[in-house]
Each structure stands twice: as structure tokens, then as C-alpha cells.
Amino acid sequence: GAVVSQHPSWVICKSGTSVKIECRSLDFQATTMFWYRQFPKQSLMLMATSNEGSKATYEQGVEKDKFLINHASLTLSTLTVTSAHPEDSSFYICSASDSRGLPYEQYFGPGTRLTVT
Amino acid sequence: QQQVKQSPQSLIVQKGGISIINCAYENTAFDYFPWYQQFPGKGPALLIAIRPDVSEKKEGRFTISFNKSAKQFSLHIMDSQPGDSATYFCAATPGTGFQKLVFGTGTRLLVSP
């Protein structure tokens, strides 16, 4: 149980284009989902917290207009990187909390490798 | 106060040995302390977690030791195996509600055959 998937697992896009990453909770309902960014050999950096049906809460220093987060249902959250640039290349990971389980437990997706050329 | 300090940054252990990773925190509101294991190119996976009402939790070869007064906790991997080679992150969060995790900086463990 508590499986989180991400799609795509890797994506290459050209500078200036937008790319959407999906995060799905497969066997549970996720009231809250989190989006992280991870650079090579570094820890996870929380970008934003999203709650189903409401606006995401972004961490300080994260550009809201660049990283659009939508949590339209209890099983799906999306992260759209708008007008991507090479410096946005990174490993993006989502996590979800089971609304019926312990709220502080987070289950992580497998990550999405974004490369902007 | 929101930081979780993790050490060492990297660790090499011989097969069969004990791997020990330490973490320390300042925020007394933290009361849920998970450890995550991450392999290259993969997302973190929950390994084991503890709440401060116990001083030790063991699951198979993995043990968390918790010292509430010192605000420190550690992960011990007994009989370390090459398959344990990964990056380990400690984390902390207030154990109520949908709170964000505060991660340590990670420890890259290499278990030599």
C-alpha cells in the first residue's frame, strides 16, 4: 500500500518551453502533497505544499509563477515548470500523505529527472 | 531551529560491520523522526521511524536510538551489506497534522564487499 507514482520519469525539454510533471497516489487518497527538488548529491529541498482544492503554499525563494502546482483531486497533483531554463534542470520528487492514515507520514514518488537544453 | 544536522557526510563500512549515522535537532516541537533510504535516481523510501516516547526502535537490521534530552537520534545498520549502499536521510516533523518534513543533509553509505 501507499504507492505514489510520477510521470514522466525523465523529460528533456528545450529552453523556454513548459513541462508538466504528474504525481499520483495510486492506492490512497492524499489530502496533502509535497513537491521537492533535489540537486546531485544534495538533500531534498521542499518547494511547496499543496492541499486538494486549494492554492499551494510555496516555500520562501520558490517562484510561484514559474512552478505552477495544481492539486485538483485527492489522487493527483501536477507541477508545471513554465518557461524552463537550464538552471531548472533537477530531480523533482513528490510525496503524499494518506488522509486516512497518520498525517505526518509521507510517501515519496520515484522522482522525475528534468533536463533543460 | 528548523535544521536537522546529520553526520557523517559519507561513510565506508566493510560488509558485516555496523553503520552508524547521527542526527541532531533543536526544535522541541519535532516529535516524529523518520529515516529514509535513497538509491541513485530513485525517490526516498521510508526505512524506519520513531517518536520520542521510546528510546529505541528496531526493525530487522535497522535500529533507531533516540536521546530526547540531548535532542539526538541515530540510525544503526547491523551486519551491513553491499545492498545497503545508498544515501540515508534523517528527518523530523511535528507529529501532528500534515506538516512538512525537515531533512538532514544526507549520508552516503558505501558497504565494501
Give the gist of this structure:
With 117 residues, chain A is mostly beta strands.
What do these coordinates show?
The complex is a heterodimer of chains A (117) and B (113). With 117 residues, chain A is an all-beta fold. Chain A is built from no helices and eleven strands. Chain A has strands at residues 4-7, 10-13, 19-25, 30-38, 44-51, 57-58, 67-73, 76-81, 90-98, 107-108, 112-116. In chain A, the strands form two sheets. In chain A, strands 2, 4, 5, 6, 9, 10 and 11 form a seven-stranded mixed sheet that branches. Chain A has a four-stranded antiparallel sheet with strand order 1-3-8-7, with no helix packed on it. Chain B is 0% helix and 52% strand. Chain B contains no helices and eleven strands. Chain B is globular and about 40 Å long.
N-to-C span of chain A:
37 Å
Radius of gyration of chain A: 13 Å
The class by helix and strand makeup of chain A works out as: mainly beta
> What is the string of helix and strand elements of chain A?
EEEEEEEEEEE
Q: Quaternary status of these chains?
A: heterodimer
Characterize the overall form of chain A: globular
Radius of gyration of chain B: 13 Å
- Give the largest chain-chain interface (CB within 8 Å): A-B, 26 and 25 residues
Q: Mean pLDDT of chain A, rounded to whole units?
A: 93
Q: Roughly how many Å apart are the termini of chain B?
A: 39 Å
- Unreliable runs of chain B: none
Total number of helices of chain A: 0
Write the SSE topology.
The complex is a heterodimer of chains A (117) and B (113).
Chain A: E1 4-7, E2 10-13, E3 19-25, E4 30-38, E5 44-51, E6 57-58, E7 67-73, E8 76-81, E9 90-98, E10 107-108, E11 112-116
Parallel strand pairs in A: 2-11
Antiparallel strand pairs in A: 1-3, 3-8, 4-5, 4-9, 5-6, 7-8, 9-10, 9-11
Chain B: E1 4-7, E2 10-14, E3 19-25, E4 33-38, E5 45-50, E6 56-59, E7 62-67, E8 72-77, E9 86-92, E10 102-103, E11 107-112
Parallel strand pairs in B: 2-11
Antiparallel strand pairs in B: 1-3, 3-8, 4-5, 4-9, 6-7, 7-8, 9-10, 9-11
